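Fold this sequence, please.
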Amino acid sequence: MAGLTYSKATAILTGRRQRRRSVARGFLLLPNVALILAIGAQLAEPAAATQAYAPKAELPAGADANSMIAAMLSNASVPETDAVGVPAYPGARVVQAMNVQNPVTRAQTGTVRLISNDSPEAVAAWYEENLTGWRRSEAMGMIGFGEGGREFNPMRPDTWGVVPSVKIEGDDLYEYGQVWLGVQAVIEISYALD
């Protein structure tokens, strides 16, 4: 190896050692890279789709966008079906959703208000059929259902602590009938927040 100086030979040998170390490190890193890619692939999988409790009502064309109902509708964040735990009446639309403090238990409670073009009696009959073990109460044109045989009477504040509960009204439509023509029932669902 004519013309090979000590410093050149050292540089060549050092470069070879460094390449060998890099290759060895690469082999050591391969299992870690594979593990990271596998975890990343699992994280990238889409989460199970959550389902909205019921469709949100749309403000009809020509309705007052500055009305109280329009404000309630725009602020309504529709909860997921699993969070509510009470079935939504078929075809009902959400007009209000909020978290409130239960006046009896002082616990935070979720409330969803829906509207339906069906009569209060038809809505109540559906809930009576679909809420096994719930107790039905009636007062002043309102119908209430309390879970587990407990009474929920919309006119008796001492029963308002029953959660979950369903309240159906047909007489006082909170101006919903003026905004959405054909509305006959307002359904209010109260449920415990986790």
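The helical segments are 6-44, 68-75, 81-84, 120-130, 176-179. The first strand starts at residue 93 and ends at 101.
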